[in-house]
């Protein structure tokens, strides 16, 4: 059996998985490892894959920012990141030196977004934004059936937002403080602001009003600039059932009928592949190399 490999490299954990090349939507085996310093983490990944001798391609969907420009001297590297030890690490080079197979190199949000686009919540459209809200905030953007990239991948989690009038939090982002979406809406920002994790906050807490406001601002910005047919929310924070209806409500208020969009219940949705969105999308991307 020819196998595809997937690496979903997150700031908190790495997820590795394999699938049959003929059925990339079915995860045959998976495991996860705590994200530590690069050499240790990559060795854990390689040791897990070593139990399989029939891997024909591997997709890597990594936390960003990363260099995805094939013409760049640092293609395959992790760029400046607050994650200790990972800045300027040659991730792709370390994998290619271990196993000589084709590698698809992209961001973690592109992997999950592609999974939802091919066979999940966005399978019926040609243009979509997948937004993950968890340890960080990022977006995988599909325009005319292609992942969006310019001189690099989008960093749509760092768009600037207007501060909520009831929010005095200084912000979590080490680069932008409370000016950017990740700085005010990520999971660590919620926990630092309120002193408890998002999982512990009651549904009627002011936190959700503020969180929905920031995420609705982001959806308005993406709608105005990208004109997607779907906006899909993933990550740990949107697991809370109270949040998505609040985002839809606030989006409608802020959009104020300026542009036509589908009904908000169809336009702003959750993931269909759940926690497997990233690895499934990464399998699809790896298969595209064959």
From TrEMBL:
Catalytic activities: D-fructose + ATP = D-fructose 6-phosphate + ADP + H(+)
InterPro entries associated with the record: ATPase_NBD, Carb_Metab_Reg_Kinase/Isom, ROK, ROK_cs
Keyword entries, A-Z: ATP-binding, Carbohydrate metabolism, Kinase, Magnesium, Metal-binding, Nucleotide-binding, Transferase, Zinc
Top-rank taxon, per record: Bacteria
UniProt enzyme class: transferase
EC number: 2.7.1.4
Cofactor section: Mg(2+)
GO molecular function, one term: ATP binding
PANTHER family xref list: FRUCTOKINASE, TRANSCRIPTIONAL REPRESSOR MPRA
UniProt similarity note: Belongs to the ROK (NagC/XylR) family.
Record-given protein name: Fructokinase
Source organism phylogeny: Bacteria, Bacillati, Bacillota, Bacilli, Lactobacillales
């Amino acid at each position: 059996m020819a196998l595809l490999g997937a690496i979903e490299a997150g700031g908190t954990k790495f997820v590795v998985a394999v699938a049959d090349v003929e059925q990339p939507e079915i995860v045959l085996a998976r495991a996860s490892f705590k994200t530590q310093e690069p050499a240790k983490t990559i060795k854990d990944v390689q040791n897990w894959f070593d139990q399989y001798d029939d891997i024909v391609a591997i997709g890597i969907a990594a936390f960003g920012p990363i260099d995805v420009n094939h013409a760049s001297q640092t293609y395959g590297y992790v760029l400046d990141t607050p994650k200790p030890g990972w800045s300027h690490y040659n991730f792709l080079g370390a994998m290619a030196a271990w196993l000589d197979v084709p590698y698809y190199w992209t961001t973690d949000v592109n992997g999950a977004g592609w999974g939802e686009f091919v066979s999940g919540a966005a399978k019926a459209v040609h243009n979509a934004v997948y937004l993950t809200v968890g340890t960080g905030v990022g977006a995988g953007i599909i325009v005319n059936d292609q992942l969006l990239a310019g001189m690099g991948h989008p960093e749509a989690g760092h768009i600037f937002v207007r501060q909520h009038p009831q929010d005095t939090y200084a912000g979590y982002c080490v680069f932008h403080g409370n000016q950017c979406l990740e700085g005010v809406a990520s999971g660590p920002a919620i926990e630092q602001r309120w002193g408890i994790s998002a999982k512990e906050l009651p549904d009627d807490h002011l936190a959700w009003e503020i969180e929905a406001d920031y995420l609705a601002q982001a959806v308005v910005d993406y709608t105005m600039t990208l004109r997607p047919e779907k906006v899909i929310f993933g990550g740990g924070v949107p697991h809370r059932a109270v949040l998505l209806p609040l985002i839809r409500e606030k989006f409608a208020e802020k959009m104020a009928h300026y542009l036509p969009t589908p009904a908000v219940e169809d336009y702003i949705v959750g993931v269909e592949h759940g926690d497997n969105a990233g690895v499934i999308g990464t399998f699809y991307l790896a298969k595209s190399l064959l």
